[in-house]
Amino acid sequence: MRIDILTIFPDFFAGPLDHGVLRRASMNGTVGIHPIDLRTFTHDRHRTVDDRPFGGGEGMLLKPEPIFDAIESLAVTPKETRDLARETVILLSPQGRPFDQTVAHELVSLDRIVLICGRYEGVDERVNTLLCDRELSIGDYVLSGGELAAAVIIDTVVRLLPGVLGNPDSNRFESFGAPDSAADAETLDGLPRSTHGSGGLLDYPQYTRPADFRGASVPEVLTDGNHDLIRQWRRRAMLEKTLKNRPDLLVTAHLTKADRKILEELRSEHLAENSDD
Ligand code: SAM
Known about the structure:
alpha/beta, Alpha/beta knot, 8 helices, 31% helix
């Protein structure tokens, strides 16, 4: 996969993308990540990339010309003839559609992704309409630039590329695992096949040594070696955490009859706890 990032701060990416699995994926050629300096595509002494908005208002906008010139220099296929199964151009914007694990799974199958990072008050809208296939937002808040958003998207997508994580199952059975995949629907004694988080739920809490730390012990079931009980405990913990922190995910999660029964129990435990207060 090739990823080009159009930005006025190309040095920003030297840090975030140069660690751990991302670094390894770049080093072994699984992905090529290329920050492109938009100022290279300016033609004036001050290397101007911004201008005032028509109609007045706060701040400045990134001008269209350097962005169009950069895209053309990269030989990106024009929007009308672009094969969206292979190549995409994305504008990072708080006005975009939410980026999530489902979108990451869509992007991972592409050969080429171009990310355009806005700055100031944003980007001339013709960049969006004439060059981009989609606008993506990484959350309901406003960053000062698209670079952090680009880094978030790159990290999320690259770790899904085949061979990037040591264990290929790691990204199938984790928080936000696709709810409808056949693998997630496989069950063992009425429990999901994996002991890991999947099926659209949040992952379960995990512990490592020491078993006792500052008076807090690891749940006993995890140290007893009974794998059926461990699976049951983990499933319940996933449901509990999702119910507590992200109840919205339960609407689309892959839930068995047993899961629904556990959720009922958890809800009535929760009600009982609150009525004790
Ligand atoms: N005036 C814009 C608005 O209110 O929608 C905000 C512009 S923001 C200060 C500057 C740039 O940061 C945007 O053009 C975009 O590239 C990036 N950005 C800010 N928040 C973002 C988010 N939540 N997701 C993705 N990109 C974001």
